[in-house]
Amino acid sequence: MSGPLRLYHEFLKSFKQLTEKKRWGRIELIKTLALMMVGIFESRDVRLSQMAEKVPLAVQEDSVVQRFRRWLKNPKVDERVIYDPMVAALLVGLSPTRLRIQIDRTIIDKRFNILMLSLYYRKRAIPLVWQVLNHAGNSHFRERQALLNHLAALLPPGSHVLILGDREFGGAEMIRSIRQQGWDYCLRVKGDLAVCLSNGHWAYLRDLAPAPGTFYCLTDVIFTRKGHAGPLHFALACDEHSADPWFIATNLSPARRTLHFYAQRFGCERLFSDLKSRGFHLDLSQLIHPERFSRLLLAVAVLYLWLLSLARQVYRLRLFMRLTYRPLRHRYSLFQVGRRWLAKQLSLGQPIFPDPAFRPFCLVSK
Questions:
Q1: How far apart are CA 101 and CA 165, in angstroms?
Q2: Distance between CA atoms of 329 and 242, rounded to whole angstroms?
Q3: CA dist 180 to 10, 185, 233, Å?
Q4: Burial of residue 161 (number of CB atoms within 10 Å: 0-12, 13-18, 19+)
Q5: Which pLDDT score is estimated for 354?
Q6: Which residues of 3-40 are buried (b: 16+ CB within 10 A; e: fewer)?
Q7: What DSSP line would sit under 295-342, residue for residue?
Q8: Domains of the chain: which residue ranges?
Q9: 165 and which of 17, 34, 103, 260 could share a cystine (Cβ 3.0–4.6 Å)?
């Protein structure tokens, strides 16, 4: 059996474990998803013609392209119905830890404006919930709130959540919404917004900016004249080589660790890099319809999560030395370990999984 065909059957087997209690729809739609994932992995490309070249089907490539195109156009392909069980399985395993959720927005191919919630994991991020916005520019509060509500429905009871976001998301309305969910937050705030200090005086954050190379905290302040969120705290810092200070709003006790928490937000930047230039070149899709691009993103996200769960097992068993003699942290990310391990095992005709107990879409060991 060829490597791509083996991979196709393993993807289908992984899906079967998640569909015993919840139907995803017609089996043909699920098979097409598995074929697309094989094509994306083998070609490292999301253009339909490139994917079709690598698909293990004895049919003309044009027919495969048409099959993929129909799948992307099909309104019965519901990203949430397919992806939510995977996210739920992932979160159940990680729920005893603090779940650091990043909210961010990215532009792909200069045409798709994507708002996404992702989970920080080992200096990377895992896509959880997303929306391809139907407008340019910043997201609206109702769009962010819809994603937060969707995430809340997926979380196991008692989950400890920390929301991380940049200046686009650092508003009083957003803070109140996060606190209504019972979650913590570390959000960067724009310097042209005002806070009411403990002495009752209002001041713009930019006027409170720390000098380069310094750090200090504000406690029990009210945030913005109109929004009136709080009382909350601020960690204020400025790198010694920068003129762009950080104003980090948080409900946690402000300290230097607040800056460490916020810095984990950049894991989503590495995620977007993995999905684009370092991974599957999502920015080359050639699609023009947002709903079709969202379904393509679904296929890439499922593949990404599957590879991370494989890499976690390779890492746990310390088998990454088969890939490089250098310390792993100096060479490959977890995503690259999963991708390279799978490619090598397929090329050698060796077992894909280093342990029969492999569980897809799970990042913890039992």
A1: 9
A2: 28
A3: 41, 12, 17
A4: buried
A5: 84
A6: bbebbbebbeebbeebeeeeebeeeebbbbbbbbbbbb
A7: HHHHHHHHHHHHHHHHHHHHHHTT-GGGT-SS-GGGT--HHHHHHHHH
A8: 3-77+289-348, 81-186+242-270
A9: 103
User: Which amino acid, 195?
Assistant: V
Residue with structure tokens 């879409």? 361
Please tell me the total number of residues recorded for the chain in this structure. Answer: 366
Rounded (10°) angle between helices 141-154 and 172-180: 20
Structure tokens at 240: 């010694």
pTM value is 0.92
Instruction: Give the span between the Cα atoms of 104 and 187, in whole angstroms.
Output: 11
Q: Supply the pLDDT for residue 22.
A: 56
CATH of domain 81-186+242-270: 3.30.420
pLDDT digits (tens, 9 = 90+) for 55-66: 999 899 999 999
Distance of CA 246 to the CA centre of its chain: 23
CA atoms of 120 and 128, how far apart (whole Å): 10
User: Which tens digit of pLDDT belongs to each residue from 128-169?
Assistant: 999 999 999 999 999 999 999 999 999 999 999 999 999 999
Residue found by looking up tokens 């989503």 in the block: 268
> Do β-strands 215-223 and 202-204 pair in parallel, antiparallel, or remain unpaired?
unpaired
Sequence-distant (6+) residues with CB within 8 A of 281 are 44, 45, 46
Residue 304 to residue 291: CA distance in whole angstroms = 20
Rg (CA), the chain: 22
Quote the tokens at residue 52.
């079709």
